[in-house]
User: What shape does this take?
Amino acid sequence: ILDVMYSTHRFSQHAADFFGLGKIIFSHCLNILERRGGIQMLNIEPINKARIAAGFLTVEETLALMDNGNLIPDPFSTLVSRGVLLGENNLIYPGVTLQASGEGKVVIGNGNVLHSGTMIDASHGRIEIGSDNQFGEGGFTAKANQPGADIHIGSVCRFLNNPSVFGRTRLEDG
Assistant: This one.
């Protein structure tokens, strides 16, 4: 079912319907596993302890991000920290890291697509991202990891094949 979710996603005017369907499908899969005893066989406590120790949300807290219409097909491999403010209807593929630590702050708008290999890391500054952007395929890196770093990315931009932004950067609407 998750493979179908990956392959059928089309970022269009029907994205909101898709995001809602994705959450329903994922919840349905969890219900089936729970009825069959599958959830009990998977002890995620050690995973959650490691995530918390590294400053990230638990698997359950990551799943709760879907309450805003965000679609996270694999909450086990998606890492989001508490200092990240995530908008609505974003699609976050497996292998994405959204991290804000120390003095850092990450704000992400609505309707963005973050492909695998995307790393957004603010430890000493602010990263602000608008809406309706595509990060990856092929990865993307934004790091505000030095004092005074401030990265602003507008809306309707595409960042493909592993571009990187650091320090003081302003990318307008695309």
Residues 1-16 have pLDDT under 50 and may be disordered. The longest helix spans residues 15-35.
